[in-house]
Each structure stands twice: as structure tokens, then as C-alpha cells.
Design brief:
Chain lengths: 428, 332
């Protein structure tokens, strides 16, 4: 993997030295090394493979080839900022850093530089308010949507009534892990359930006390906001104390194959939210295999095709590609600028017909983006792990979040940001 | 007995067992520091490297296959066989011995007589190199270790102890893996002590630890002893990697377990094997009890990491050499 990164870097360096071509430049701030590589690799593979497919099959987007500039962040915030600074001069159209920590650092920089940031299901939740965060987007859903969707799912399971139930949240003790707490506290008050908060320190290798606490208090449901090794350890510990797995639900960053496989059969029945449908039979995957992998142009070793995070990376790439196409349509130019890209993202409309045309029918919800709403519809799918077949199965369709709870929180958080930073809310 | 008291005892037992796992990592640090005065920053990465190598050998993976495929356009991944666990462990020990020889030959032999801070810096470089080479050899994916180690609650203990309390007490939770880890640690420590007390090379190792110059003057090869010590530290790293890897899968976060060993070393002393064990037990027990009684109820939880360091700091203030470390006296 590392060699691949080095080779990619070398190729990119040679391209930088070459005369500027009219490429659509998309930096990929990936992490193929370090403690979080298991999550970073499949996402990056999916992201890059989709653009490689567009280059191979369609000659790029609107006749312009896509050039991926990969930069290794190691999920390290400082390195992520360095990657941003070293790649933005190449005409980067949009950044997707796949890290909440990096996102927090990049938002003010990108606002100043006029380059869009897209943080799909992570990052700063308040960027949903596009009037305050003109250059940041987090469609199709954010953390607060995720918390609300999970609670809605639990309500459905309990005939609409969570009154008297006890829910524990096991969370990464970081800005990321704490994100759902205001939403869950608000929902606890309105729905009548009690909420126990159990913090796990980075990296999450040791969780004995948290799971002994869960064993003592026996909550009806355990929710998890984890990433990296915390997920694998939590699922193993839940299996160790024989917590009913069907009542243990992770968010969409705690629901990939590598999160459950180390626990073996013990992980059977574990549930997690997802922002995309998972299927290995999307026709687009066949195209990727034949036109990208078989031609020796796979971003990785080709083993991740169809996995949860590969699909998510591919979906992120599709949304970026559709935004580029929309920007080209709006401005009547194929070689677009970051400002045009922003316009394309704000006018993005994803329909089922278009997803089917792209060979990924039903992969995500139908939605449109606007200046006021950079966050999309805020929907999620509940999926469950079957350890015997080693597959995730979708249990539901795309479920709504409770916007009556999440929207006021978004308004309050974005207003606080605007007040702190002297931002006047307006559409560009 | 009230359930809260019984659960306190449960927390204490689990803390002691967690402490054994910390001690397993700390032991590797102690072995190298005692014999050569080097604080080996790479000990955590050695545990990761050993566990990755064991998993790779067991699954019959071709080392450096990503590199080979990228260079020659091949599609090599596996030899197509699985190696039995015992054979794979022995082969991993051979790899760790080879690594020890290379480290001694290529790095530390050239740094003899340098300041401790230089040697420490060299181990930082070694840590990052090992992490990179491990990545190149075996890839970055999370690996599983299929050593058939028992895991999960011991039902026998749970059922037998449930009668101690009322309906709100569910018996003591003891993870079978922790019991195995405790037994393995006990055997490992006994073997290390027996080796250093009753074998020729063990005595030579102790002589080097006591006084390099004197050991050299009676014909003991420092290079050989240091290779031996690094090999033993590699074996300890393998054991730690197996135990921690069984909990979370073998992945790059394993290298961070070294952070759990530091307060153990500060508390137990850098030069004492019993100190590493007792330090591990005190840290494990202390952090879990603090979380149960104060951290969780009053401070929002997740106090284990900082409490362990705070406990170690308090000990440092009163006994800078740790509870079991050798007091350093320098004559002016």
C-alpha cells in the first residue's frame, strides 16, 4: 500500500512538473497507513476507482479528464492541513478529508481560499446551514441526523414509545464522539428515555470499565460513536459480556466489515447505521472491475470492491462527479473553477433515475442541495451483520431523521459560529 | 453482601487482570533497559510487528506481496497454505531473533558509548521504520489471530458467584482471555527469572546489566548479550501482541499499547522485572477502581489513561527510581 502511495506521489510530482493541462483536479486526502488505515483504504479505493472509471469509460466528466492528487494524512490533523496547503494550488475543486479533526481545521482555510469542502456524514454538523458556511457541505446526512435516525428506528421497534427505556451511548472521547450528545439529550427529554454516557479514551484499546458498567446497568440499547480500534474492541467486549447484539447499534463509522470480523461469530446480529445501501451487485461495480481493475488501474489491491467503506467512497466520488457535471451545465464550461464547483454542489439534484443510469440504483436517497441546506435530507439505513455469511443486510429503507429536533440545533450552532467569527449569514 | 461492594470487587479483579496485560508490555522495556540502558521506544511497534508476522505466517501470506505486485505487475498474495499455530509461533520467534540481530548489527553497534538520548532517538527511528516495514510486508488491513484462545465470560465463575448477592448482582465477570493472559505472564516471568538465574547466558546477561566494563573484561561478548536481550524482548512483544491482538484484531493501533506500559514503568521502575509486574497490577487496579468510584460517577468517565499517569507521577515524586528500580547515585 505504501509503495502505491509513493508511486502515486511520484506520478503526481511528474504531472505537476508538466505543463498545466485542463484537468479536473480532485485531491484525495487519504490514510493508507497508521492506526486508521483499515477504514481509510477502502474509502480511498472506492473514491479513486470511480473517477478512474469515468476517465476510462467517458473520457472524464464533460470531456475533461479527472486527475486525482492523493496525499497521505495518516488521519493526522497536522498532516491533513499540510496536504491541503500542498495541493490547493493545483486547482483543487473540492476536498473530502474523511476526518472530523482535519475538517475543523480546513473549514476556515477553505472559506478564505474559496474551495469547497465536502464532509459526508462527518465533520462540523452545523455546516448544514449554507448561509453561514458558504463553502462547506455535509450532504446527504450528518451526525445529528444519525442520532435521530437511530432513535426513530428504536421507536419503530418499540411501537413508537421509548418512555422508560434506558439507552447507553459508548462514545470516542473526542469532538467526533461527543457530536451526537446534544441531539440524544434532546431526544431523551422529548421521548422519555434515560441516556447514560460512557466515554472511551483514544484509541479505545482498553474498555473494561465501560463494559462492566454496561453489564451492571443492563441498558435496553447501546449506541456507539466509535472509529478505528475502538469499534473492534467494543464489539468484542459486548460479545464477552453476552450483551444482546441486536440491541447494540453503531453509527455509520462503526459499521464496516473490519469492525465486526475480529469478534467472529460473537458479532452476529450487531447493527449499524449506514448512509448508503450496501450491495455487491451494483452494475457500476462490474464496470469498475472490467474497465479499471482488469486494466491494472485499481487504486488499491482490488480486494475492497463492494465493502461498506468502498461503496461509501464510490458514492462520495459520484456526488462530486455529479456536482462537477452540474457546474459545467450551469456555467457552460467544461474546465471549471472551485467557485463554479461550489455552484454545482449547491444546485445538485440526485434522483433515483439518475442513480439507476449510473449503475447504482438505490445506493442513496433522492435529494437536492440548496444554498440554505448544505446537508441534504439526513436519512440513513439500518443494517445488520450476519457473521456466518460475512455480509451486512439492510433492515430498512432510508429512514428520516427528526428535523424538528436537529434543525434548531443546527441553527443554534451555526449562529454561534457566525457570531464568533463575524460571519454575516447570506447566500453567495 | 450489597451489590455495589461485590461489583467493586469485580472491578478490582478485572483491574488486576488488565494490569497483567500492561505488565506484559512493560516487561519488554525492562529487559532492554536493564541490559543496555536503552529506553526502547519501539517496544510497542515490536508487539505489532510480531503479531502481524505471526498472523501472516499462519495465513500463508507472501511477505512484501504488495511491493512485488506493484513492481512486477503480478497478482501474488498467498502461498496457498496455512501454517499450524505452534510452527508459526516458532517461525515468528526466529524472525524476531533475526530482527534483534539486525538491530544490533546495523544500529546499536555503531552507537556504543553515545548518550542515552541518542540511543533513545535511535529507537524512535526504529519504531517508525518497523511500522513502515510491517506495512510493506503484511499490508494495513486488520488481521485476526486464530489461536483458539478462550474468550468471553467464564460462566462457571459467573454462576458460582451469583449467589453472593441479591437479584441485582449477576456474578463476577471474568474474561477467560484475561485468565489465560495471567497464566502466560506468570509462566513467562518464571521462565525469564529461571533463565537469568540458572543458565550461563542468563548469568552473563545479569553481569552485563550490572557492569558492562567488568563483563567485557571477563570475556562476555556484549554484542551477543544485546542480541539475546533484544530477542527476549521480541518474544515478550510477541506474547503481548498475541494477547492484545486477540482482543482487537491485529492492527496498527497495537503499537499504541506502549502508552499503557509507560506509567507501569514509572511506577515499578525501569530495571525490575517484579517491578513491571507489581507496577502493572497497581496501575490496572488503581485506574479501574478510580473510574468505578470517582471517574465514572463524578468526572464524566474515561479517566483511566490520565489517572494511571497521575498515579505514576505521585510515585515518581517520592521514589524517582520507581518502587522497585535501582537508585542511581552518581559521585561527583
Amino acid at each position: 500500500m505504501k509503495l502505491h502511495t509513493l508511486l502515486t506521489g511520484a506520478v503526481m510530482a511528474s504531472l505537476v512538473a508538466a505543463p498545466a493541462a485542463a484537468d479536473l483536479v480532485l485531491p484525495d486526502l487519504s490514510y493508507r497507513t497508521g492506526p486508521y488505515a483499515a477504514g481509510g483504504i477502502p474509502f480511498s479505493d472506492g473514491y479513486q476507482d470511480y473517477f478512474s472509471l469515468l476517465n476510462a469509460r467517458d473520457g472524464g466528466i464533460g470531456g475533461e479528464p479527472v486527475r486525482i492528487v492523493e496525499c497521505e494524512t495518516g488521519y493526522n490533523t497536522e498532516k491533513g492541513v499540510e496536504c491541503y496547503e500542498s495541493t490547493k494550488g493545483e486547482g483543487a475543486l473540492v476536498y473530502q478529508p474523511l476526518s472530523t479533526g482535519i475538517t475543523y481545521q480546513l473549514i476556515p482555510k477553505a472559506e478564505a481560499d474559496g474551495i469547497p469542502i465536502h464532509t459526508m456524514g462527518y465533520g462540523r454538523t452545523a455546516v448544514k446551514n449554507g448561509e453561514v458556511f458558504n463553502w462547506a457541505f455535509n450532504f446527504p446526512a450528518n451526525y445529528w441526523d444519525a442520532a435521530s435516525v437511530i432513535v426513530n428506528y428504536l421507536k419503530d421497534e418499540n411501537d413508537g414509545d421509548l418512555n422508560g427505556k434506558n439507552i447507553a451511548l459508548v462514545y470516542h472521547n473526542s469532538a467526533y464522539g461527543k457530536e451526537p450528545i446534544p441531539t440524544l439529550e434532546s431526544l431523551a427529554e422529548s421521548e422519555g428515555f434515560t441516556l447514560d454516557l460512557l466515554a472511551v479514551d483514544h484509541p479505545g484499546q482498553e474498555q473494561t470499565s465501560q463494559w462492566l458498567q454496561i453489564r451492571r446497568s443492563r441498558p435496553d440499547y447501546v449506541l456507539m460513536w466509535g472509529w478505528g480500534v475502538m469499534n473492534q474492541v467494543a464489539i468484542q467486549e459486548a460479545a464477552n459480556i453476552r450483551y444482546p447484539m441486536e440491541n447494540f447499534i453503531g453509527n455509520w463509522w462503526a459499521g464496516a466489515e473490519h469492525d465486526v470480523t475480529p469478534a467472529g461469530a460473537g458479532a452476529n446480529g450487531y447493527k449499524s447505521l449506514n448512509m448508503t445501501k450496501v450491495a455487491s451487485d451494483f452494475p457500476v461495480l462490474d464496470d469498475i472491475k472490467t474497465m479499471v481493475h482488469d486494466e491494472g488501474n485499481a487504486a488499491g489491491d482490488g480486494s475492497n470492491v463492494g465493502s461498506v467503506l468502498y461503496i461509501r467512497g464510490m458514492y462520495a466520488a459520484m456526488l462530486a462527479a455529479e456536482s462537477i457535471a452540474k457546474a459545467q451545465e450551469i456555467h457552460g464550461e467544461s474546465d471549471i473553477t472551485p467557485a463554479m464547483m461550489r455552484d454545482g454542489m449547491e444546485a445538485l439534484e440526485i434522483t433515483e433515475a439518475r442513480m439507476a443510469e449510473l449503475g447504482m440504483s438505490g445506493i442513496g436517497p433522492e435529494f437536492s442541495v440548496s444554498c440554505e441546506n448544505h446537508g441534504g435530507p439526513g436519512m440513513g439505513v439500518m443494517q445488520q451483520w450476519d457473521a456466518s455469511s460475512g455480509t451486512w443486510t439492510s433492515l430498512t429503507g432510508f429512514m428520516d431523521s427528526d428535523t424538528s429536533v436537529t434543525d434548531p440545533l443546527v441553527v443554534a450552532a451555526s449562529k454561534a459560529y457566525a457570531d464568533e467569527n463575524g460571519v454575516t449569514a447570506a447566500c453567495l | 453482601m450489597p451489590a455495589s461492594l461485590l461489583y467493586g470487587v469485580e472491578v478490582l479483579i478485572n483491574g488486576l487482570m488488565a494490569g497483567v496485560l500492561y505488565a506484559l508490555v512493560a516487561l519488554g522495556f525492562v529487559l532492554i533497559y536493564k541490559a543496555s540502558g536503552i529506553f526502547n521506544y519501539a517496544q510497542g511497534v515490536m508487539a505489532l510487528f510480531a503479531a502481524m508476522t505471526l498472523s501472516g505466517i499462519m495465513e500463508g501470506d507472501i511477505p512484501f506481496s504488495h511491493l512485488i505486485n506493484a513492481m512486477f505487475g503480478t497478482q501474488l498474495h498467498s502461498f496457498g497454505w496455512n501454517v499450524p499455530a505452534i510452527a508459526a509461533i516458532l517461525l515468528t520467534v526466529v524472525v524476531m531473533a533475526l530482527l534483534a540481530w539486525l538491530v544490533q548489527r546495523l544500529v546499536f553497534r555503531h552507537l556504543v558509548g553515545q548518550e542515552p538520548i541518542i540511543l533513545f532517538m535511535a529507537t524512535i527511528g526504529l519504531a517508525y521504520f518497523l511500522e513502515g516495514i510491517g506495512d510493506l510486508m503484511w499490508g494495513s488491513e486488520i488481521r485476526t489471530l486464530d489461536l483458539a484462545l478462550p474468550q468471553g465470560a467464564s460462566l462457571a465463575i459467573e454462576n458460582a458467584t451469583a449467589v453472593l448477592g441479591g437479584d441485582d448482582f449477576y456474578g463476577f465477570f471474568i474474561d477467560k482471555l484475561d485468565v489465560v493472559a495471567t497464566m502466560v505472564a506468570a509462566i513467562l516471568v518464571a521462565a525469564l527469572i529461571a533463565f537469568s538465574q540458572y543458565t550461563k547466558y542468563g548469568r552473563a546477561m545479569r553481569a552485563v546489566a550490572d557492569d558492562h566494563q567488568a563483563a567485557l573484561s571477563v570475556g562476555i561478548s556484549l554484542n551477543f548479550i544485546w542480541v539475546l536481550v533484544w530477542t527476549l524482548a521480541g518474544i515478550v512483544a510477541l506474547v503481548a501482541g498475541i494477547m492484545w491482538g486477540a482482543k482487537s484484531g491485529v492492527q496498527f493501533s497495537l503499537s499504541l499499547i506502549a502508552l499503557k506500559a509507560l506509567p507501569v514503568l514509572m511506577l515499578g521502575g525501569f530495571t525490575s522485572i517484579p517491578g513491571a509486574i507489581v507496577g502493572g497490577l497497581i496501575i490496572g487496579m488503581g485506574e479501574q477502581l478510580f473510574e468505578y468510584t470517582i471517574g465514572g460517577p463524578f468526572l464524566g468517565g474515561a479517566t483511566e489513561n490520565w489517572f494511571a499517569y497521575m498515579l505514576a507521577l505521585v510515585v515518581l515524586i517520592f521514589r524517582p527510581q520507581g518502587l522497585f528500580g535501582e537508585r542511581i547515585i552518581e559521585r561527583v
